[in-house]
Model the fold of this input.
Amino acid sequence: MNEPQDLAALPHAVSTKGLYLDGVSVVFDGFRALNSLSLIVEPGELRAVIGPNGAGKTTMMDCITGKTRPGSGIVRFGDRDLTRMDEASIANLGIGRKFQKPTVFDALTVFENLELALKAPRGPIACLRWVLSGEARSRIEKTMLEIGLTVRAGDLAGLLSHGQRQWLEIGMLLMQDPQLLLVDEPVAGMTDHETEQTAALLVGIAGERSVVVVEHDLEFVKALNSKVTVLHEGSVLSEGSISHVQNDPRVVEVYLGR
Amino acid sequence: MNRRIILLLAVLLLAALPLLNLLPVSNPLHVSDFLVSIIGKWICYAILALALDLAWGYAGILSLGHGAFFALGGYAIGMHLMRLIGPRGAYGHPTLPDFMVFLGYRQLPWFWLGFDWFAFAFAMALIVPGLLALVVGYLAFRSRITGVYLSIITQALTYALMLAFFRNDMGFGGNNGFTDFKELLGMPLANSGTRAILFYASLVSLVLVFLVCARLSVTKYGRVLTAIRDAESRVRFLGYDVTHHKLFVFVLSAMIAGLAGALYVPQVGIINPGEFSPANSIEAVVWVAFGGRGTLVGAVLGAFSVNAIKTWLTSVAPDLWLIVLGCLFIAVPLLLPKGLVGLIRRRKEKP
Done:
């Protein structure tokens, strides 16, 4: 392996691809939101992260996307140190994030929402001179098909149902051509049918890219059929297949055995 | 299509006013000098309203200090007009404006150099507001100051500039500002032909600014601005540098406001620090809100209609104007959140 110097110096052997968190701690006013959290997500992997409220799931996402700077620890994506980058450059690096509350742009149409997210030069002048190419159009149309919103292309995003907004937001992430997708509680407030569709959508997305799904809904996590990481009080409590995790006595105690 | 015809008719109607002014007073279609000059002013206000709407209506940057950019544009052209007075001033000094002679200046301050050229002064009317917006905007947007905090900063900016321009030793005529202008580009300002030319220059500028804003709003950049207005942090996570985008529109908006001020001052014949008054900037916000923010027609309509009310009220019941302005400030967001344009659209949808 031809590893960069600083990576070779890391305490553990690390692959240069994928997401790598080691010993990450975040303290808010004396509250340890993350307590020496370590996590590795391989390229193309689908990973579910579960844990009770306050386990640090969202803070973990914040650290990866540059919203929060960890007090200590390593956050890397490939060979890039994410703790030194701002949100926009992390997004441009290929890390997309779907927030817990879907935030799509209500005043724009479904098509326009996806167009904004499409990977293209992002400066004011570039946007002024932007002309939608046939290639871009077909990419947007492909994504609309994937998220099942083709018929709503010209509708304002503000008119979509809750589930459709979630899909639109996932679609917007896909437009950015991410290598890593962070998805925060995608099925909160969805009907059972929508939940199933979302699980299928996420499974389909992974493979080409890594996907990290944070979720409360255990049925949904089972449907993902992926490796599961359980967080508790800011660090990893257990990790493995869903059946492994479900049978781990520590997990049962703090989370599943309620 | 229908809308375009109405807009075109409105522009033609405005364009006809200086011509109707030429008719003899006895003719029923005659338009008074007063009306032509006041509509000329409103056209400049409409340009300022477009500038503000671009920043506020599209990008969500509520500036309560846009009057400062307008006034700076006005001061830049005012400096040129002062230089053109030459030896015709009360003190008859060949180069120094009257107030400088009065204050004992020996020579022209360095920052007055170049203002004897129209092109330089006109460029400064755009560049100075643009630069100020660049510096203030950079500091504010980089620190992610948004919403009410940004409004307060812009308000403080115009207030600070007002206090500074009131000082005699700033070199801008203190509280008297500039007046007694004689001519512009070789044309005497008192001449009705010159007034008509200024009127048309303003009207053409209004149409051009309108078209530029309309074009901008349908580009992807326009949609990025809308997105920033509605969910700024989401845009950041999409990988857009929100600071650059806001800065770009803020600077553009300030330059348009400067243009409006530059067209305004030769028509009213005076510029003084009162133009920096925070109340002026707030009034401009009321125009846009009343007309309908986020729509260009609304901004123009708001500037004309609120100023029509103001002109009428200040002649029949001058004491009432500020009360009415205050009421508009409160009532419009409550009763007409989308302004006049929203009202018209609602009417159309429910016939």
